[in-house]
């Protein structure tokens, strides 16, 4: 039998086991954002201490949600984040968005309104460019499609009312919900937001397509045109 001492495990092995145990016993709420990020990255970065990388990611982007929402090129700017690690984070985001979408597709929007708002926030809240989406509903107000109609700069996404209504007719949609984000973070409707909504409603009504609402997604809050009395 060899008398050579066994190779000691790296110090972070015990840390990983402790984090996994805390998650199993208390769920995500038992962990700080950077710890939850560490837990996910264990499989992506198997053989090194990840705590500093996770903390740097949170410091750079602000929160767990903002980390996974960040573009790959910005994630790669953080020391220790490889192309593979950045891609793993985007896969996590894609999976989360898919779960959110499937929780509302095919269901009446009135019964899933909180889930619909959560979904809109998750897909648009941290976008750096303005994005305009249309949620298409059938005659029973069930969501049948969610599509990006316009995407542009930090303060404008081109949207053409006739194209919105044309797409609704192609999908046999009888009602729509408009949604777009304000990358500035302030969800207050602008004059152009109000004008665009008025133009879409004017184009939709003669063709039997109702516009139920227009949601503006900010960083920390969401506003509804219907609640504000703007439609």
Number of domains: 2
Give helix and strand order, one letter per element, not per position.
HHHHHHHEEHEHEEH
Biggest sheet descriptor: 5 strands, mixed
Instruction: Determine the structural class based on helices, strands and strand pairing.
Output: alpha+beta
Counting H and I runs of at least 4 residues, what is the number of helices? 10
| CATH topology title of the largest domain | Cytidine Deaminase, domain 2
Mean pLDDT: 88
Share of residues in strands:
5-15%
Helix coverage percent of residues? 40-55%
Assign an overall shape: elongated
Number of strands: 5
Per CATH, the architecture of the largest domain is 3-Layer(aba) Sandwich
Radius of gyration: 22 Å
List the helices and strands and how they pair.
Layout: H1 12-26, H2 33-41, H3 51-61, H4 64-69, H5 72-75, H6 83-102, H7 113-124, E1 131-137, E2 143-151, H8 161-170, E3 175-181, H9 191-204, E4 210-217, E5 222-224, H10 225-228
Parallel strand pairs: 3-4
Antiparallel strand pairs: 1-2, 1-3, 4-5
Commentary on this structure:
The protein is an alpha+beta fold. It has 2 domains: 88 residues, no CATH class; 122 residues, Cytidine Deaminase, domain 2. A hairpin with a 5-residue loop joins strand 1 and strand 2. The radius of gyration is 22 Å and the shape is elongated. The termini are far apart. 26% of the residues are buried. The mean pLDDT is 88. It has a 5-stranded mixed β-sheet with strand order 2-1-3-4-5, sandwiched between helices. The chain contains 10 helices and 5 strands, in the order H-H-H-H-H-H-H-E-E-H-E-H-E-E-H.
């Amino acid at each position: 039998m060899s008398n050579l001492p066994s190779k000691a495990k790296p110090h972070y092995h015990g840390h990983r086991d402790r984090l996994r145990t805390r998650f199993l016993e208390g769920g995500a709420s038992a962990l700080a954002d950077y710890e939850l990020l560490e837990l996910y990255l264990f499989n992506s970065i198997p053989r090194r201490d990840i705590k500093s990388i996770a903390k740097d990611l949170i410091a750079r982007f602000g929160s767990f949600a903002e980390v996974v929402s960040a573009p790959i090129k910005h994630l790669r700017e953080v020391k220790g984040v490889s192309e593979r690690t950045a891609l793993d984070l985007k896969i996590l985001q894609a999976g989360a968005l898919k779960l959110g979408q499937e929780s509302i597709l095919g269901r009446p929007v009135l019964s899933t309104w909180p889930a619909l708002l959560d979904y809109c926030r998750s897909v648009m809240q941290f976008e750096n460019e303005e994005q305009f989406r249309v949620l298409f509903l059938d005659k029973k107000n069930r969501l049948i499609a969610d599509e990006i109609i316009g995407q542009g700069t930090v303060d404008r996404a081109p949207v053409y009312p006739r194209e919105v209504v044309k797409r609704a007719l192609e999908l046999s949609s009888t009602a729509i919900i408009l949604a777009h984000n304000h990358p500035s973070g302030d969800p207050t409707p602008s004059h152009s937001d109000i004008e665009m909504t008025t133009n879409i409603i004017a184009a939709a009504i003669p063709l039997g397509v109702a516009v139920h609402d227009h949601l503006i997604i900010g960083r920390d809050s969401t506003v509804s045109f219907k609640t504000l009395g703007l439609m």
